[in-house]
Amino acid sequence: MALSERRQPLVPSFLYSPSTQTPGLDRLLLGRNPISAPSTQLNGSPAPSVFAGAPSEPPFGKIELYSPKFYTACTFGGILSCGLTHMAVTPLDLVKCNMQIDPAKYKSISSGFGVLLKEQGVRGFFRGWVPTLLGYSAQGACKFGFYEFFKKYYSDIAGPEYAAKYKTLIYLAGSASAEVIADVALCPFEAVKVRVQTQPGFARGLGDGLPKFVKSEGALGLYKGIVPLWGRQIPYTMMKFASFETIVEMLYKYAIPTPKDQCSKSLQLGISFAGGYVAGVFCAIVSHPADNLVSFLNNAKGATVGDAVKKLGLWGLFTRGLPLRIVMIGTLTGAQWGIYDAFKVFVGLPTTGGVTPAPAVAAPAELAKV
């Protein structure tokens, strides 16, 4: 069989960088497919490995890029990233939700914390932490796992040249596709969480709150807020992933004098956190109106989007609770990218982003003629 007949579409080099220094052109030229590579290059020398491994053997063995084990690792990293961070900021989320629902009572961040402390004590700050942990763990698993899948899937469809040229569109399409699935997993938990946090006495948590919610609203009521949730989370996630990838690439290009593959892992993780924090500020602004709608709809039985707009007003939709949400989402997003990339480093995978696309290379059929 001719060499050109065995070659498959190659994944653009900007999607991932190796954990050890390897020439970018060699990474692009060789391999039967985006997952495996032959043992020798065209000139007979050993081919670079497509396994992502740290200098020392990672705890789960070397993970082959784009393999089931790779996507499993990314999914588990997403669980840790989203579940733990959202649970940690439960007090901020609690105050934010109540400011959106009852601004007359919760007039500011400081007074909101004061009202909660006076009425519910310290334990009240973590009301709803169980549905928060479980819901955002499920969302994170789908968000990050499917993002990695769709990012490669759309890159394969576009081909190396167009995927590198239109990489931002790849990031946007991949993250939007992943978030559609992630929100289906999150929505029931989010509905119960908001009801528990904004209606004292409704339930203690998920265990008793879920049956009460279903009894009151019906099973389909758990998905009453799915459209506003998509409206909040899809723009948020598109901004989160596309701006992060762009910011990190710019940091390595303009602010860091050393190539990424020569930077220490601690520096790379610091850049991941910084890029994530800046991306989070943009995310909060873009998704805030829909966040207000989600809180309003899940708090009141039979409420509609029209009711929310009438009561809150257009200005209120964009501004109510926004300063607190910027602080919360900025910190949250920075921590999420830090945790996610830290887990990837732990299992021997490269951190996300920061690789400038390599120039377009000759097609495999043309290489075979050389």
From TrEMBL:
Lineage: Eukaryota, Viridiplantae, Streptophyta, Embryophyta, Tracheophyta
Pfam families for the chain: Mito_carr
Domain of life: Eukaryota
Compartments reported by the entry: Mitochondrion inner membrane
Solcar repeat boundaries on the chain: 69-153, 166-250, 267-346
InterPro entries, per database record: MCP_dom_sf, MCP_transmembrane, SLC25A3/Pic2/Mir1-like
GO cellular component entries: mitochondrial inner membrane
One GO biological process term: mitochondrial phosphate ion transmembrane transport
Entry GO MF terms: mRNA binding; phosphate transmembrane transporter activity
Major site of localization recorded for this protein: mitochondrion
Organism: Dioscorea cayennensis subsp. rotundata (White Guinea yam)
Function: Transport of phosphate groups from the cytosol to the mitochondrial matrix. Mediates salt stress tolerance through an ATP-dependent pathway and via modulation of the gibberellin metabolism.
Family label: Belongs to the mitochondrial carrier (TC 2.A.29) family.
Name recorded for this polypeptide: Mitochondrial phosphate carrier protein 3, mitochondrial-like
Keyword vocabulary terms for this entry: Membrane, Mitochondrion, Mitochondrion inner membrane, Repeat, Transit peptide, Transmembrane, Transmembrane helix, Transport
Membrane topology, from the record: Multi-pass membrane protein
